[in-house]
Amino acid sequence: MSYLALEHKTLDFIRRKNLLKEEDRVLLALSGGLDSMVLLHLLHRLHYRVLVAHCHFGLRGAESDADEAFCEERCRGLQIPFTSKHFDTRAYAAEKKMSLQMAARELRYAWFQELMSSHGCQALATAHHLEDQTETVLLNLVAGKSAESLRGMQARNQQLIRPLLFAAREELLAYAEEKKIDWREDSSNESREYRRNFLRHEVIPLLKTINPSLHASVHRLSTHLGSMQAMAEGAADALLASCSEQKEEEFLLRYPPILNHPAKGYLLWKALSPYGFSGAVIEEMLESGLQPGRSFQSENYRLHCDRDCFIISRNTDAVADAVYSISLQDALCTTARGTILLRRYEKTEHPLEMNDPDSASLDAALLQYPLLVRHWQAGDHFYPLGMNQPKKLSDYFIDRKIPLPQKHRILLLQSGPDIVWVIGERIDQRYRITEKTKTVAHFKWQAHA
């Protein structure tokens, strides 16, 4: 296959999946490996506006230094803007008590979101391809995850795009050889300590002796499952809506229509998994016969079996949610659910985003630092934009028809005693921009991918 064929296929995939517009600016995560180097050249050849970001995690010594220098040099040759950042990944992992892989993921995506906001990028591109999709699907299968997870990665997940998800690695290799694109090999990719590498080097070669077209077969499977999942979700949503009721502090689900349905297991999982109930707990519920009076608990919710319905309420014994702080000097606040970016403008320079619920433009002079970011609590109230009277958040959530699991995931931005922004919803009327405003504090919420 000529290099032109891969370029045409990539452009066709981008257009069919609506990944990028011609005028968009895209942030490319560049490691220096074969996949990301090919994607860099493809986007360059297709005339997209690219900004390259390289992460130096400090885990492989001189090898990481060489990767960074290599990426910077290649971007300079293509006249593509390049930026890199050094992370103390080991210290972050120790502080957060997580694996190095998870720490690296959190660090890079928080930084990527910051770059996208500051440079006006509409998308973040990664170079996942067909073989990566196979590995993801098989890992989810072995882990016993839901049928939905067997769809694997999607070409678009909010702002994250994967323009090479259709391509086999051999296509990328042939393109690199024909275009004389060089790349760096990451020695950690050979380590069998990581599950993905073990699957790649040990398991998949054995599976390919049974089915040489394994990657294409898995791709077809994930595509079919995606279509089936979309159909199933539509029917399930309609049925669940007909037998559920949201009250202020409780979610009621009449279960006779569900238990009489041939897909009762799936319906219960779809209804209860947002509250943290696992597949194993749902199986236990079905096997128990759902006798009235029985109760089950997830991390944050309690489910009580009544005569013909489940009553789900917040578990008051659950561990209190974390509170995050933003000082006057901070430009970034990373939470467990996403990142808040903060910038300050003179009022005359500020581009207002009045219709974006994930953005808040507030009068900077009225804010008291440190600001707090926390979850909703009983008794909280604020003055919704456009109203001159306070409103309880519990009433606001009911008016907005926000379901119980979702409202307990919503974060609030607090200044002094006041809630100034229900993140993703509405700002407080008292902190809006007025004719008296001189400086604007602009907050942008970026949920984790």
Amino- and carboxy-terminal Cα gap:
34 Å
Unreliable sequence segments = none
Report the C-alpha radius of gyration, rounded: 25 Å
Arithmetic mean of pLDDT: 86
The count of DSSP E runs of length 2 or more, i.e. the number of strands, is 22
Give the overall form. globular
CATH topology of the largest domain, by name, is Rossmann fold
Helix content: 25-40%
Fourth-level CATH superfamily of the largest domain: HUPs
Count of discrete alpha- or pi-helical segments spanning 4 or more residues: 14
Kindly estimate the percentage of residues that lie in beta strands according to DSSP: 15-25%
Question: Which architecture of the largest domain would the CATH scheme give at its second level?
Answer: 3-Layer(aba) Sandwich
Question: Would you give an account of this structure?
Answer:
By secondary structure, the protein is α+β, with helices and mostly antiparallel strands. The protein folds into three domains: 3-217, Rossmann fold, CATH 3.40.50.620; 243-314, Uridine Diphospho-n-acetylenolpyruvylglucosamine Reductase, domain 3; 324-447, Phenylalanyl-tRNA Synthetase, Chain B, domain 3. Helix content is 39%, strand content 22%. It is built from 14 helices and 22 strands. The chain has helices at 3-16, 34-45, 62-78, 89-96, 100-119, 130-142, 169-179, 195-210, 214-242, 256-259, 264-272, 279-288, 393-399, 404-407, and strands at residues 25-29, 49-56, 82-86, 123-125, 156-157, 160-161, 244-246, 250-254, 295-297, 301-305, 309-314, 324-326, 332-334, 338-346, 359-363, 371-375, 381-382, 391-392, 411-415, 418-422, 426-427, 439-447. A six-stranded mixed sheet has the order 3-2-1-4-6-5, sandwiched between helices. Strands 7-8-11-10-9 form a five-stranded antiparallel sheet. Helix 3 (62-78) links the parallel strand 2 (49-56) and strand 3 (82-86).
